[in-house]
Design brief:
Elements (H helix, E strand, L loop, with lengths): L5 E8 L5 H16 L3 E4 L2 E6 L2 H14 L5 E8 H4 L24
Length: 106
């Protein structure tokens, strides 16, 4: 089945204990960025794809550059599914008092 626009999401958990591990982590991350991925949050990257052919090509590229240790997961969803992501954040606090009252008690 062919969808017009899709999003590929790459999730990874790589070891960073040694200097060599950190170097492999940085190389993998830079390779994702070089291939057009954008960071959604730490260790979660996303890329817009035009069709399933592009999806397969990007999957092959990730398979070639994936590190020997750790875990890398790939999820492809339609643009419609991606648009339904709900972003939840913590409580918003502001120290700015925005009022038209003449006397403010702190």
């Amino acid at each position: 089945m062919s969808y017009r626009f899709m999003r590929m999401m790459v999730f990874f958990d790589l070891p960073t204990e040694t200097a060599a591990d950190r170097r492999v982590y940085r190389r993998f991350r830079n390779e994702l960025i070089r291939n057009g991925f954008l960071m959604m949050q730490e260790s979660v990257y996303c890329k817009l794809l035009m069709n399933t052919t592009a999806d397969q090509a990007v999957r092959e590229t990730i398979r070639k550059v994936r590190p020997p240790k750790g875990i890398v997961q790939i999820l492809t969803i339609t643009e419609k599914q991606f648009s339904k992501i709900e972003y939840l954040t913590g409580e918003f606090k502001s120290d700015i008092i925005n009022t038209d009252e003449r006397m403010i008690v702190l």
